[in-house]
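Reading a protein record of the kind used here takes little practice once its layout is understood. The reader may check this reading against the record printed directly beneath this paragraph.
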Amino acid sequence: VTHEIKTPLTAINGFVETLEGGAIRDPALANRFLQTIRENVLRLNRLVDDLLTLSSIELGESALHSESVALGEILDKAQALILAKAAVKGVVLKTDLPPDLPAILADRDRAVQVLLNILDNAVKFSPEGGKIDVKAAEENEFVAVRVTDQGPGIPAGEIPRLGERFYRVDKTRSRELGGTGLGLSIVKHLMQAHGGAMEIESAPGRGATVILRFPAFQPAAE
């Protein structure tokens, strides 16, 4: 945590000192430095928000309000929040949900957060003009959601470590894309809190598939 916070703070401090040293008198240069400072402040805000979310989940302070939720409904909400970002890269999201898919037992807001985090990752690592496939199917007492991208893929040895705090396969690229290194950790913990699980299947050059297994809603017996 110290390292992740210190890096943007060091950048902010360095650019402030440069501005104080005279760069502020060059409007074009000053604006560029101020933009970099702003980007690092936003990065710190994202990091603090994610740390607070993760801490709240781990300490059991984030109570889930589980209910019967239609997967299509929360998926629509998550996609609506990511469509603008996908459009910038020309990335297309394709959804395929069977009409007889059962509802899931989940906290509505947290389930949206889980799907949003996974879709956001998929867009980040998708190539320009790529495609993201979202499919779902009933598997025993669960509903499995599969989100598949066309990104660079992940070496087999790295997959077990995904979900660890701050672990990134490509550290430099992840930071450049705005990642805090906590997104998958939050997803992993939220899925466990739901009584479900997160799995990842991938290989270098073949994209990645994130599988989210939510408990299927079981209607009370009459």
